[in-house]
Amino acid sequence: MVWQTEVDVRITAGSWTSCFVARRLGPVWRDRSIWRPVFIEAAAKLDIARRGTDIGIRNKRPDQHWLAARRTGTVEYAAFAISAEVRGFVALSQTEVQTPSAIWLRQHHAGEIVSTAGAPRLLADLAVAGVGKVVLPYFEEQDIESLQQVGPVIGALTHAEWLVRHHEARHDAPVRAALDVVAQVLADRNSMMSD
């Protein structure tokens, strides 16, 4: 049953983080909550300051004083494939917003790109099919079981992760509740990664 007092809370993050949080939301969010999750998958950052979104999961700490941030952990990337014998890489199409991992891949392995796709999830599917290697955040390893890490952690892509909101959202009960749930999902991920 949907309660009439539910408020949409917009959560934005990159593709992989959005998928990760969405897949794990069920056990920690209840349909009788005071908020309703609205996921906005976005490689480009939406404006939290102008309320383009309520919660952002970001790869750097915001420097605007009207935004509040909580560090959630560190995200590492590596190349993954179905086996170490796979050659070449699959890459995000150049017509799409280029993520840091897509930029890195083109800067370091442009001549090895064997296929492109318009969405990050399609890149993983191409890698599962054996078409090429894919650069993924390390936490995706647990959800795409047929892929294995085939290269070292890519230090240039390692970054802190931040849960960001407008500082006035601390007075907004639905946003506070959503922040707690998202923070729990990310904390659980970090504890799984360290085990």
UniProtKB/TrEMBL annotation:
<protein>
    <recommendedName>
        <fullName>LysR substrate-binding domain-containing protein</fullName>
    </recommendedName>
</protein>
